[in-house]
Design a protein that fits this description.
Blueprint lengths: L1 E2 L4 E2 L1 H6 L10 E3 L2 E3 L3 E6 L6 E6 L3 H18 L4 H17 L1 H12 L3 H21 L5 E4 L7 E8 L2 E5 L7 H13 L2 E5 L6 H13 L6 E3 L4 H10 L3 E7 L2 H10 L6 E5 L4 E5 L5 H13 L9 E7 L3 H13 L18 H16 L3 E4 L14 E4 L16 E7 L2 H9 L3 E2 L1 E5 L3 H10 L4 E4 L14 E2 L2 E2 L12 E8 L3
Parallel strand pairs: 9-10, 9-12, 10-11, 12-13, 14-15, 14-20, 15-18, 17-18, 20-21
Antiparallel strand pairs: 1-5, 2-6, 3-4, 5-6, 7-8, 8-24, 13-23, 16-17, 19-22
Helix pairs in contact: 2-8, 3-5, 3-7, 4-5, 5-6, 10-11
Length: 494
């Protein structure tokens, strides 16, 4: 952590923005920007250079943010649906208007290629637009009464203050997917972004301020996650907690939230299987495999980690996939390559460990397999074939640009191996047999199944997994459920 009292930002990043006011380094609590007494450094993973020093707030500040949000809830919870819709639409338009600046900030702090950052801004903004419309939906449901002379109604009411804890791999979309639903439902929010990518969250807070979101509805508190989020899990005024991140941290937050019985939304690890049957369109399967593995440089909970290919087409797939992987470009995100740097040294070390372990167990290295000369956080896109069943990479989420391929002989074997994991977020299936599509889609123990394609996410669909990939769903109308309580009213007019 870096001590200091004045905001300090990279002049190079600020100069690259059309609107330098979006490069904010102070936390937002209520109507105030809070600098705090200390700061921490945010660095560009491509170069290792410091790009900003951001407010390092305390548990006391976290409690203050909850108090502000709790006070704001009284008014926001009874605001008219059309008022919530209006401000969410305005926030959406502001994001689209500042798309390029928001993307540049994201690439600077996260490292992803600039075209991917632009795509994420569009994706993030889509949640504001979608939930602006959901805010208008009637929330009273009539039920046929089971009692004579009684009227029965069900009301959906906002739960209160919602704590939103977001990761570094999608620093804008993970915030809007949570915040838009909570705010549309009538909740107020306290947000803790990853300390590695706080600038995107603070830019969103600045845009929310500009479009007139009432003070206290969207608060952003930066600093140490254990201190800030720990304060929120203990605070009974926080009625819901939504977290995206590792399964390990999700379990911790689950335990910490038990004493205050919070409503939980947990979007956790992935470890997705990618199944290729002999009747698949091979060129399409290879193209989709590249997308499923290497988007966001493999740092995606939806990223394919385990590739199982029917033996009769196994070598063909391996050759084509390795060739396509060798053609990918690697470099700083601002140059818009196919892959950028990894987020930190821990991520690179995990790639090295998984590759070394697989090779020791007999895997073939088809391409990559080492750090790249461009910098310490660059790892070459890597393909491993003939990966042994007991290799680490088939049992642990790699979260990087390493693909592990193994053959299978029967449909039953493929499905068994795909399901042999504690995770259950998404599975990818490539086959042209409609009966197999049905059987496999039913048998795969995953919350989402992508058939002959990779992209499946979006604001209108319920995003989430089974088993230890999490609880509840985000997106769609289901995304509102965690932020509302059902009140049953039984009324007699006599």
């Amino acid at each position: 952590m870096v001590d200091g009292t004045q905001a300090q930002t990279s002049s190079d990043l600020a100069a690259s923005l059309e609107d330098a006011g979006l490069l904010e380094t102070r936390s937002r609590i209520g109507s105030a920007w809070i600098a705090g007494d200390a700061r921490f450094a945010v660095t560009d993973p491509a170069t290792g250079t410091e790009i900003a020093r951001v407010a390092d707030l305390s548990a006391k500040d976290a409690g203050r943010a909850v108090g502000v949000a709790h006070a704001a809830f009284e008014g926001w919870s009874v605001s008219l649906p059309q008022e919530r819709a209006r401000v969410l639409h305005a926030w959406y338009r502001a994001m689209i208007a500042h798309r390029e600046d928001l993307a540049r900030i994201m690439t600077a702090e996260q490292g992803k290629p600039i075209s991917e950052s632009r795509g994420e801004i569009d994706y993030a903004a889509s949640f504001l637009e979608f939930y602006a419309e959901e805010a208008r939906r009637p929330n009273i449901e009539g039920v046929t009464s089971h009692l004579k002379d009684a009227e029965v109604e069900l009301w959906r009411e906002p739960v209160g203050v919602a704590a939103l804890v977001t990761p570094w791999n999608f620093p804008s979309a993970m915030i809007t997917r949570k915040a838009a639903a909570a705010i549309a439902a009538g909740c107020t929010t306290v947000v803790h972004p990853s300390a590695e990518t706080p600038l995107s969250a603070l830019a969103l807070a600045e845009l929310a301020r500009r479009v007139g979101l009432p003070d206290g509805v969207f608060n952003v508190v930066t600093g140490d996650a254990a201190e800030i989020v720990g304060a929120w899990t203990e605070d009974a005024r926080v009625r819901a907690l939504s977290f995206t991140g590792s399964t390990e941290i999700g379990r911790l937050l689950y335990r910490q939230s038990a004493d205050t019985v919070k409503r939980l939304v947990l979007e956790l690890g992935g470890h997705a299987p990618f199944l290729v049957f002999a009747d698949a369109d091979m060129d399409r399967a290879v193209d989709e495999a590249v997308k499923a593995k290497f988007a966001t440089t493999g740092q995606d909970c939806l990223g394919a980690n385990r590739f199982f290919v029917e033996r009769s087409v196994y070598e063909t797939f391996c050759e084509k996939f390795a060739a396509a992987t060798r053609a990918l470009t690697l470099g700083p995100g601002c140059d818009d390559p196919d892959l950028g740097p990894l987020m930190n040294e821990r991520a690179v070390a995990k790639q090295e460990d998984h590759v070394a372990d697989a090779l020791e167990r007999g895997a073939r290295l088809l391409c990559g397999g080492a750090r790249d000369a461009q910098g310490p956080l660059f790892y070459q896109p890597t393909v491993l074939a003939d990966v042994a069943p007991d290799a680490k990479i088939l049992h642990e989420e790699t979260f990087g640009p390493v693909a592990a391929i193994a053959p299978f002989d029967t449909e039953a074997e493929a499905l068994e191996r795909a399901n042999a994991t504690e995770y259950g977020l998404v599975a990818y299936l490539h086959t042209q047999d409609p009966r197999r599509i049905y059987r496999a889609s039913r048998a795969l123990q995953f919350g989402m199944v992508a058939v002959n394609r990779t992209k499946v996410t979006g604001a209108p669909i319920p995003f989430g997994g089974m088993k230890q990939s999490g609880l509840a769903r985000e997106g769609a109308r289901y995304g509102l459920e965690a932020f509302t309580d059902i009140k049953y009213v039984c009324r007699d007019w006599a």
